[in-house]
Amino acid sequence: MKKILEIMIIFWISFWLLSFINNDDKTKVNTVDQNIIFKSLEKGYTVPAWIKILVENKTSKNIEIDICNDISIRYMQTDSILKLNDDFCDKNILVVEPMKKWEIDYSSVYLSFKDKWNYVFKTNVDWKELIANFEIESRWSIAKIFIYLFYAPAYNLIIFLVNLFSWSFWWAIITITVLLRTILLWPQHKMLVSQKALQQIQPKIKKIQEEFKWQPQVLGQKMMELYKTEKVNPMGSCGFLMIQMPILLVIYNVILHIKDESNHYYLYSFLQDFNLSSINYDFFWLYLISSGGVSWLILWLTVWSLQFIQIKLSQVFNKPVKKDSIVLEKKKGANDYSAMMPDPEIMQKAMLYWMPIMVSIFTYNFPAGVGIYWGISTSFMIGQQLIVNKKK
User: Would 45 disulfide with which of 36, 49, 129, 159, CB 3.0-4.6 Å?
Assistant: First the structure.
């Protein structure tokens, strides 16, 4: 059970990191009037800032706002008014119908918000002053390392591939997945070989556990001697999982923010002229930057099936173990014995069913493009697993 808990902890820590990095908390800021809501979708941004201001009309008539002329933007606690470029202003007359809402997207003018300070947006509707404010700050050090060492190179690579494949986001995801799996081919092979070797020495492990089950310290020492003699690394698979998680984080963030125009901030010089609006996100019934619906159900079943097959293949040589061969220990002051080392067969069965379910949960919450990446990666693992099984 310990192995399963370790894997679950790794997955949930990764999910928490995703939520923390993306900070998707839509905090309600500056709801000034009960009939008209004018607020920033976030109370804080980091450079480069993808700013969105929500305008919600709860009145019975249209609201018309000239985004550049009717909304003043002040910052650095001064009376200085921020001026936006003419291209942005020429096409931004906003009309919000009754009981409707609209998000004003400032991502295309992200360079106007490069200064770190408090920003205040003001406008007047029906002689009422509406205010939205937020703060822009720098990313903290760990986030900067993640961005510049992993996110920016991956983002530029995907943009380059999209451009190479005539704006097809689907082909870009396939190509980057194949490239990553090729790079990880050897570490993945080592992990699978280590798993298989560990399975093959299970009879010896069970024998040691049975012989020294009343001597925990001696048991641990004998187990380490066995691993050394058989040249097996019991943690061989965990290392590859730790490699996989940062890669999944990067792919998730790139796909999630692919339409964010402020990402031009990270584009290398030879890609500066790339037009994000040209990207084709469709792949048959899937829209690769969204989730949910019937299309998600098909993707969910596909990823679940592939993950189930891969884990099943990894356990194909397991031999049944006796149900009474669980190592027990008696704790001080206790009246009976408790399990110290769970039955490997039980652990493997739990892995077989719970791991695909966990991956499916991630597939549900992530954009379809991440599910496609996971499905292709798992297909590669199935191929490698078949090769390892044949050799062993």
Answer: 49
